[in-house]
Design brief:
Blueprint lengths: L15 E4 L21 E4 L1 H12 L8 H6 L13 H6 L1 H17 L9 H10 L6 H12 L8 E5 L8 H12 L3 E5 L26 E4 L4 H13 L7 E4 L3 H9 L19 H7 L7 H9 L7 H13 L6 H12 L4 H14 L8 E3 H21 L4 H20 L4 E3 H13 L14 E3 L9 E6 L17 H9 L7 H18 E8 L14 H7 L4 H5 L2 E2 L3 H6 L30 H9 L1 H7 L16 H17 L9 H15 L13 H25 L2 E5 L3 E5 L2 E5 L3 E4 L29
Parallel strand pairs: 1-2, 1-3, 3-4, 5-11, 5-12, 6-9, 6-10, 10-11
Antiparallel strand pairs: 7-8, 13-16, 14-15
Helix pairs in contact: 1-6, 6-7, 8-9, 10-11, 11-12, 12-13, 15-16, 16-17, 23-24, 25-26, 25-27, 26-27
Length: 764
Amino acid sequence: MRMSPENPGRFSALMRFILSHTPDTRIQLTERAHPRAESGIHRGDPARLASFLETQLGLAIPPSKEVLRAVGLLDRLKIQGAFWAESAFKDPLATALRLLRWNEELRLAGWQGQVVSPRLGQLAKLVEGAEPGIAERTSRVIEALKVQEVDLDTIELLGMARSEQPVLFRHLLDALEAKGTEITETTVERVTGKGDLAGCLKEGYSPAGTGELRLIRPQGPLAAADLVAAWLAGLDGLEGTVVIGGDEILDGALHRFGLPVLGVERAPGSDPLMQILPLVIALGWAPQDPHLALELLSLPESPVPPSITSRLIRALKQWPAIGSPDWKEALEKGISAITEDDRRKRVGERLSLIFSTGASREEFPATELEGRVAALETWARGKAKADEAQTGRWDYLLQQLASFRMLYQATGLSSLARPLLEKLIKAATEQVALPPVRIAEAGIESVPEPGAILAPVRRIVWWNFTERSAPSVERSMLTPDEKAALEHQGCEFPEPAVQAAQFSRAWRRPVQMATDSVLLICPKFGADGEPEAPHPLWDEISSRLEPEQTANLAGELPPSVARSRQVPALAVPEPKREWRFDPTVTITLPDHFSPSSLELLLGNPLYWVLKYPGRLSYGASDPLPSGVLTMGSLAHKIAGDLLAECTNKALHDPGHAAELAERRFDDDGPALAADFFMPGRERERARLRNTIIGMTRDLFRHLHEARATVAAVETDIESEIDGINFRGRPDLVLSNPDRCQWTPGFPRLGDVQFPTPMQSPPAA
């Protein structure tokens, strides 16, 4: 850096700071504000200015994450009689975050901890000694400026007034000005757009529907992204095009249409690796949810080896529960199949920990959390070492695990409640900044919010032009008496109307700074399936218009896309009685038929061909069986086991059989049909329990009345009819007396019930 000849102790005018309403514009739209591209020009918001000055003054320390500051307050929230006590009892972390935000807002407004009411006294005592936030850091910079110099020549307030800043930031500007820094205010230049853009915020506006200003409302974000990409692809050039609030969905559509991508950051937790920690912790709660186990087993990378994953998924499809006999057998066989002794031991210990319950319904012990996090860290480090090409991805998982450990250890709690634990996992995941899927390319500029448009541009695409994306004015936490007392002591609090006006000025910028066109994108439904409403700016524009005039500005497609992008209709499928394959596929007669496979062949031959000779089946990640299927399977299992105990023996007394069924439902049910034993399923569980008990009592009463004997239960039988081999497994065979007529040469069958859908027939 060269020195200024007028003042050798200061840097030259290269050291400038431009303040605007947006924290990060990322692109140099304000060319008039800084005609030379010099490295000494910085831009940002007042908070970033404070951070810049901390570095200049030698005060810079890594700022604490807001959630970590809040976690440090959890133990202090237990103050008796505090005004936040009831909220802290229900959600301590959210309460701590809200109190920290209130403290920052008050201190930025000039509050220095004065006890003008019992509430503010409690708040001041709560945050005393806590990790500093932006307000305390700014105060520290102001104090340092009294005795130290900074090399900052000018500060330009671009599109904002000095009087709009909070009191503390105004004091910071005063302190800098006292040290010789020049403070200037610059108005953002506006332009007059073409066609429907001209005068859209003024009285007497009458749009002609020429397309310069248009709101489109596709069904959802995916359809909206394709429309935007199609519109951009049909333009004569992309120079001067800016996208507001682009995301991964829009970036994907731009890539598919061969357009430059924005390089937007991925949403927190969007990498499948970020789902491992939440799933492993969730499986520690009792009772265990089998659907979460299926999610963990279905991930592309999972702490469960692929050779064991397929076995466990099959066990879950048979009995949707962790710990069923099929599950235990699959787990044991999968681990035993690992040839290396060390690896077999490591995998066994890891899976034993992951699929065990370490917590009750209320609290999760910190020691159990540490065991699971340590196991995942060891596994992730091994994967990173083995997969050098993808080491960066595994580093993100390790960052998530380290952040989570730091958070739950900072609470100082020996056990954590479920709501708090889930919030800490979410916070740890949000602290991992995932890189963009695609690197930003030149051609289309991107800004995070409408207030970042600081100079004229050609066209603007406002993505996610929704009511949910608009900032809102929140109600002050102060009572009128508290506010009056603090204002008497020099504090200043913005009026809600003033804040709303500031927001409105910021979101008007796109229609005031675009010369050619503005495209507003508001899907009818968001990515979460919830209905969307247009941004408040649309109300400002349409409130002056008649319905037919508003219709000129809204539609499904921009006119250029509607004219040039036509998709031909596909032919309507017609039913076919015969299907022919080329080359010819020969299907031979199977070795044997089961009753269910024969029924399928006669009822739906194509399905039979695909299932048996074709060996097609449902995917591993398909939903687990539930509802009636699970009910029938559990009833079949309990009744079948009781009948098997009576094979060629005296039957259980109906009352005793009902007692045994009740006991086995309670003892074995969670390991066979876990869905019905999850919280919130009490009503369905009670109904199923009573049904199985009553069914068992009635079944054994009928057998007693018929004086029947159980000859066999679930026993394989074979026979041949007209050269076709049949093989089946009847649920129940009775004798003394026989319960059905039989044909000579065919085995005697009792009251046969063919396998339930949960029990697959023998392979063809």
